[in-house]
């Protein structure tokens, strides 16, 4: 009966988000209260459960997500993202421009949030398309596939960071495993799949023309500063994970490898390399950081709302009961996590909501030691990217920028996202068999 109640609560959540157009944070709180009362949690305890869930979930993530947003904003506003893309296109040459755009999307996508990276990449994609007279969809999709994968798999993006906290995983290991899974997934869903998209027609939309006139001639930071600053979080988190593996128990290494400390150091570095060295004063740099905090606020509220629902499921004991039941299912836990996230993603449209909602029910399985936490983060992340369609903002952004029909968008964008999700699961299962 508990499983049925939780399923009904998720259906209510989906209806509120899709048909009701309700704010995700409000929808999570309402469903959490309904679920708590229905599952037998005494009414006076429900407010405390909501507060504890929000505090426990956001408390450990706030600094990482806010600092990550600041870094991404600095990379975008300074022109470093544009510098990275132009260097890679020049390096690979016109014959391999798809691969250049894919690598550019991957590097830019590590520090930047998905929507920002999307808007930054599209003008570059179209400039390359017009310069070399290339098919738009086949040329641009690999870069957007790379952006999608970084959004779903790699810290410091909100969903992977939140899943690391929910499953008690290790940020550095998740990043290492995530890179191993992400790169093949991008290749499959990007350049290899794009071969079949050369005949899909696309045109320059009014939305692109409005965006494509951004400061293309504005000064940019140097190549080394751009690449180093954008990749610094990845390099430091990987180095920290390796150092702790070979030198466990060293206190200063544990401090230096903490993700929040890493991100703080990256912000200080970016303030110099992309700020003061480019002639910006500290007040202007801090304004950029302040704007980044405003941008991340809606994502933080979604994560907070998912934490409230998770806490209600925990305090009613239903998470443990569901986990106990799922242990008897003839489905491996990693596949189960992927399936749950994929179903919610198809219903809701948001990868972040899909991953965090699934995590609330899967956490007891991970805590029981039935699956490797870092791989569960990636499995749920892969599922949360599955089949983007008409209820996903990314679907409509792609359609409008490339001026496609609904059918062409489904055949290109939706299939690409599905390939990312399937290839991601395959990579996770292969890693699981090796580790």
Automatic annotation (TrEMBL):
Keyword Transport part of the UniProt annotation: yes
Topology term for the membrane: Multi-pass membrane protein
Transmembrane segments: 26-46, 58-76, 96-122, 134-154, 174-197, 227-247, 253-275, 296-314, 334-363, 375-398, 410-431
Pfam families linked: GntP_permease
Keywords: Cell membrane, Membrane, Transmembrane, Transmembrane helix, Transport
Source species, domain of life: Bacteria
InterPro entries (alphabetical): Glcn_transporter
Main localisation: membrane
Cellular compartment(s): Cell membrane
NCBIfam families listed in its UniProt record: gntP
Family, similarity comment: Belongs to the GntP permease family.
The protein's name in its UniProt record: Gluconate:H+ symporter
Protein source organism: Chitinophaga caseinilytica
Organism phylogeny: Bacteria, Pseudomonadati, Bacteroidota, Chitinophagia, Chitinophagales
